[in-house]
Every structure is written in C-alpha cells, then in structure tokens.
C-alpha cells in the first residue's frame, strides 16, 4: 500500500507504556518498522478489557497510514466490546528458534509490533464498504471487482473497526545466539528458522471447468509472502 | 507430553465469557481440543490489564495438564503486571485463506484457543528450574542435559508464571468456502493453505568442527511440526 507514498520517516512517541526496556537495542518506534511488521503479519491479536478482565482475540487486520482496521460480525460481542475502548493490537511473526549453549541464552527470532489506540466503529455505509474493498484488494489485488457484489444486508451485518495508532513499538530479534564466548561447551548451537508460506491452492469442490487461478493469486503464492 | 497419560475427555466449563456464540459449530470446550491447539502453536499472546488498559505480548508457552506456563526476565514489567492478575492467553494458528465468490463469504481456516485464569509466580527455585527444564525438553527433547547448567544467578533473573486454566474455548474452521450455491459466479474460489515449518538449520558462527545437529533436532525439522 505504501508503494505510491513518500517514505514515512516519523516515529511514534516513546511513552511510558511503549518504551522498550528489555533489550532496548531490539526496539523501535519508527513508523516504518511498526508498519512493516503489521503489513507482513498474516493476523493480529486484539486485546481489550470487559468488566476489568482482559480478552485477546485473533483477527485479520489491514492498515492505511496511521490507521489500523479489523472487522467481524455486527453481532460479535468482541467487536462491540472494543468500540470506543482502549485497545492493544499486537502483530507477531516468529522467525525461528535460537539455540544457545545454556538454557538462559536460548531465544527466539521474531518481529512484533504492539500498537495502542481507541477503536471506533465505521458507521457510514460507503466508508465501510470502501474499507472492506481495501481489505480484500490489499490481500488479493483486484479481487473485489471480480466478486459477486456485496449486498446491503451483508454490509449491515458486518462491523468494521478503525483505530488511529496513538502509540506503538516494534521489537525485532534476529541472528545467531549471543553466546559465542561459550562456544567451547560441546553442544550444537544455532538457529532453527521457521518459514511460513502459501502452498498449492485447493480449488473449491464444484468449481466450474475453465475457471483458472487468477494471475495475481498465482503471483502471491509464488512470492513467498503471506500477504 | 500427553503421550503417557490416559486420554483427557473432560470439558472446560462453557461460561458467559467462553461460550462460543458466533458459528458455535466451530467451537469446543473439550480439554483435548484446547490442549491440542496450545501444544501445536509455536507462540501465544498473553493479555492482561494495567491501569485499566489492555496489553498483549507474544511469548512462548508450555503446558502441563490444566496448567500453562510462560517466562521472561525477572525485571520485565509485563511479567510483574500479570502476576496474581486475571489473564487471557490466546494461541492461534492460521491454516489458510478461504476465498469465496462474495467478499462476505471470505474466511480464514484457523485453530485458536483462548484460555482464562489467574497467573501465579513460581517462586520456589527447584520448582522454577524444573519448569524451565520441561520448557526446553518439550521443545527439544533431551536438550536440557546437554546444555551448560543454569547458574543460580540465571535462575534468579528468570521469572516463570504458571496459570491454572479456569475457563477455555477452542475454535476451529477448516475446509472450503461455504458458498457452493453461488458456484455459477465466475470467479476462482477455494483455499490458499498456509504452511509453517522449520527449514534447514543455521549453525552458530564459530561452532566447533565435529559438533553435529543432534538426532532429536533433525527429527523435529523432518517432522513438519514447529514443536
């Protein structure tokens, strides 16, 4: 999405809750770092509070500049609970296990972004439909126009939440274990990388003959990216 | 871990907060379903409340029966914030995109488990060390004994949280899009499956000659599982 935009060199504020204290060298508040993780993660975990207790639900998200969106059934109590409430939305990608010579130095290679804001319902029907179109087309370029159009009833049955990112931090670890000073301990050390990818598609049963996989989906699968 | 135990046929209670209301046919409270997802997921997202606001942090977890564990630096404000507090811990695995003929019927194949309880610090040094040993050996069988032993200072610098699962639900979607009645709309429909796997290991720079990858790690990589 950012391809046609000038580079965003801004930072989110390093506030009391987003300042990275453990291993600060792994942390960043740069828009570019936070957004890159959000855009690469296939899903996010949304945290909110109901009656003082925490709830964490997985969902797909999409982003436009400093705004993050997610959606669900208009009847979902989780979406209703998040409306006009403080939300923490976290995207995490695990890139591998880091095996060191001691238990203590074992780690994980990962990328995670934690963003905070207040979720607002997108009520305007046109704005909501536009947001859903961007959701679909960001994942699968050009798909929206090829679909059976959304009915008024379907739009009504779908809630979209939109949240301005007020505060955010990214945290990244990569590379080998950091215990080369213990290399004489005779145990295998290194990284077991994890790779997540799209594998060959499964056409729906009964898909009529002659309907081929669109080029854009074939390219996505080829790309090695999840989105 | 459950290999040597009799099958667990119990259910977690379906409470106000864990009853699956949206698509209840996808939901379960069975220990077996909840635990299978927790044991397959490489990481979890822990949600808790600080000053009324939600926080969601990714971490690795491990499980023993109805108890889930996670750990971190003893100096971590997140671990301290979760201690003796209500926590929601969610494990999610995304198995694929489900592409339908309409935007509305698009979906995701996934497995997720949401568990609730109150986190307790494991203070006893021996109990804490045992828990960490199970963490390492559950991921990488036999590794603990091959490592440089943990020092007293390292145990002290590590906090372990342990939570009895009081309430839990699992939710699973799999299979093709559910819109075969719209199969005449001429667009590709089906599933784009996602596969996450361990790829060839990267030995640490300076790993002495003659230290081979242990058989148990080779088997894990071969297995196609992440843990």
Please explain how this structure is put together.
Two copies of one chain form a homodimer. The first copy, chain A, is built from five helices and eleven strands. With 227 residues, the first copy, chain A, is of the alpha+beta class. Chain A has a single domain, classed as Pnp Oxidase, Chain A (Roll). The first copy, chain A, is globular and about 65 Å long. In chain A, a hairpin with a 7-residue loop joins strand 6 and strand 7. The model of chain A has no long low-confidence stretch (mean pLDDT 94). Chains A and B meet through strand 2, strand 3, strand 6, strand 7 and helix 3 of A and strand 2, strand 3, strand 6, strand 7 and helix 3 of B.
Q: What's the multimeric state?
A: homodimer
- Give the CATH topology of chain A: Pnp Oxidase, Chain A
The interface involving the most residues is between: A-B, 97 and 97 residues
CATH superfamily of chain A: Electron Transport, Fmn-binding Protein, Chain A
